[in-house]
């Protein structure tokens, strides 16, 4: 049998629990502290987050037990952006789950502190990626790596490292554990080592590289030249070239590495979403059947081997089950009829999207059809799209034409009593 939580229960100073006399509370605490851990876990699984937070105030022994991540895991899975994915993976294991649940309430209520960490004069089409405490931002032909302070999420004003080499602007870039891979308006793909001062050039496209993705040494790129190319890190030449007969705006490699999806401009009589077999370089199937002309797909993200989220010019976020490709299983419409430039999900319930007008960022709960929260970031007379956004457990960063915005949801978190 599991050991009891504690042999004695020391009362927390200057705190009490609402309702009931202090003697009854101490008696209850003594009883709980003598229970085996597995029994206590089972009892606590019936409590909501408010009850758990109040229970923390009973005594030190109960406080330390209730603060364990295992107690909060089931509750955290029902909140937005706590780092617990639908599959049960914990994205932020270094942050206590109780703290993440508190911050999650701010995401849901839209409570945040806004800031503009970076500004620049020339209008650009920036792109973002995040890796733990580092934010990567493309500006013209360079990509800067900026430290994020762990305590506040604030961005250092100067990059600690710059990745360069393109003769034109960087269109997109992706991160792997060992490389930063960028595609530019010069038609080149540059593979930068993140561990050594080395880079490799991949040449093949004759117009700008609009999109790319990379996993486990595999690189997929799409271009304005109406081709998709398959690359590996072992060669500077493409392994295969696939004619698309339309401009390619987005690509995503399946987590299984056996297939990838392309999103095109939808200017020809072809479906803008198609699934391709990596080994055979052949189209497996198309997604959807009724896309109006010009409904190009600008961004896409896999959430599992069978779940794909897409967005684009037709103002919809769509969820596709790749086992049922003829029709999307869910969709969310941008209420102001704006194109959607970018999306990111938390792997569970939340979607963040960036719109084409006035720098609007929207938060969506997948369990609802209506938008949950929205933030208008652009205050200039001429509006800017949100070209890219990325978020952590407490911060959201959005790149507009001349500014980088941050939304800090850890400010004044809701403390439950």
TrEMBL record:
Keyword list, A-Z: WD repeat
Gene3D superfamilies: 1.20.1280.50, YVTN repeat-like/Quinoprotein amine dehydrogenase
BP term (GO), one: SCF-dependent proteasomal ubiquitin-dependent protein catabolic process
PROSITE patterns (UniProt xref): FBOX, WD_REPEATS_2, WD_REPEATS_REGION
Region named Disordered: 1-20
WD repeat boundaries on the chain: 202-241
Residue span(s) of domain F-box: 29-75
GO CC, alphabetical: SCF ubiquitin ligase complex
PANTHER family on file: DACTYLIN (PTHR14381), F-BOX_WD REPEAT-CONTAINING PROTEIN 4 (PTHR14381:SF1)
UniProt protein name: F-box and WD repeat domain containing 4
Organism lineage: Eukaryota, Metazoa, Chordata, Craniata, Vertebrata
């Amino acid at each position: 049998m599991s050991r009891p939580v504690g042999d004695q229960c020391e009362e927390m100073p200057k705190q009490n629990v609402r309702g009931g006399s202090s003697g009854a509370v101490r008696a209850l605490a003594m009883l709980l502290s003598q229970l085996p851990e597995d029994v206590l876990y089972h009892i606590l699984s019936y409590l909501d987050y408010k009850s758990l937070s109040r229970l923390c105030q009973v005594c030190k022994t109960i406080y330390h037990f209730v603060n364990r991540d295992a107690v909060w895991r089931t509750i955290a899975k029902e909140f937005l952006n706590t780092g617990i994915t639908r599959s049960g993976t914990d994205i932020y294991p270094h942050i206590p789950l109780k703290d993440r649940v508190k911050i999650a309430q701010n995401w849901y209520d839209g409570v945040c502190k806004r800031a503009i960490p970076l500004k620049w004069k020339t209008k650009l089409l920036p792109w973002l990626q995040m890796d733990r405490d580092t934010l990567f931002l493309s500006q013209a032909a360079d990509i800067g790596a900026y430290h994020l302070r762990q305590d506040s999420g604030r961005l250092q004003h100067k990059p600690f490292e710059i990745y360069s080499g393109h003769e034109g602007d960087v269109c997109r870039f992706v991160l792997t554990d060992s490389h930063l891979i960028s595609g530019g308006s010069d038609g080149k793909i540059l593979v930068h080592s993140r561990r050594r001062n080395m880079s490799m050039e991949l040449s093949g496209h004759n117009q700008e590289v609009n999109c790319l993705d990379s996993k486990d040494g595999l690189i997929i790129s799409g271009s304005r030249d109406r081709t998709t190319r398959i690359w590996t890190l072992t060669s500077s030449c493409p392994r295969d070239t696939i004619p698309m007969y339309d401009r390619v705006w987005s690509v995503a490699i399946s987590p299984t590495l056996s297939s990838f999806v392309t999103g095109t401009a939808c200017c020809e009589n072809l479906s803008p979403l198609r699934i391709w077999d990596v080994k055979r370089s052949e189209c497996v199937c198309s997604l959807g059947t009724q896309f109006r002309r010009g409904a190009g797909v600008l961004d896409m993200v896999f959430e599992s081997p069978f779940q794909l989220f897409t967005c684009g010019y037709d103002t919809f976020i769509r969820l596709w089950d790749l086992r049922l490709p003829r029709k999307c299983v869910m969709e969310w419409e941008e209420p102001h009829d704006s194109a959607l430039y970018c999306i990111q999900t938390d792997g569970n319930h939340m979607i963040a999207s960036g719109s084409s007008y006035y720098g609007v960022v929207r938060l969506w709960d997948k369990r609802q059809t209506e938008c949950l929260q929205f933030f208008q970031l652009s205050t200039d007379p001429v509006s800017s799209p949100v070209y890219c956004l990325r978020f952590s457990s407490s911060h959201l960063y959005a790149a507009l034409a001349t500014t980088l915005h941050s939304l800090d949801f850890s400010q004044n978190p809701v403390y439950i009593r």
